[in-house]
Design brief:
The protein is mainly beta. The chain has a domain at 17-67: Pemi-like Protein 1, Chain: D. It is 8% helix and 23% strand. The protein has one helix at 33-39; strands at 5-8, 11-14, 47-52, 55-60. A two-stranded antiparallel ribbon has the order 1-2. Strands 3-4 form a two-stranded antiparallel ribbon. β1 (5-8) and β2 (11-14) form a beta hairpin. It is extended, with a radius of gyration of 20 Å.
Length: 86
């Protein structure tokens, strides 16, 4: 594992250490244990996978119930137009 630092405007921002994995002959990778633990991933969990700017990005699919309370203090009193509602 190698850790890198990024210098931005004379400040140092530490990046988390990265672990290298290999693509199997079946195009599969194993997500390292430290990453699984940090993200709370479980066997059989659905993932959204996409190509983004030359990178492979895998995002865990979370149940909508986990989003409840994600933005505390958000103003929900915004008035809506009824014209576009069915």
């Amino acid at each position: 594992m190698v850790s890198f630092n990024v210098f931005t405007n004379d400040t140092v921002t530490a990046r988390p250490p990265m672990t290298q994995v290999k693509l199997s002959s079946k195009y599969q990778i194993v997500i390292p244990e430290d990453v699984r633990d940090a993200l709370g991933l479980k066997p059989g969990q659905a993932m959204q996978v996409m190509a983004l700017d030359g990178h492979v990005v895998a995002v865990p699919v979370r149940p909508l119930s986990e989003a409840f309370g994600m933005f505390p203090g958000i103003d929900t009193t915004l008035e809506r137009d009824d014209e576009d509602r069915v």
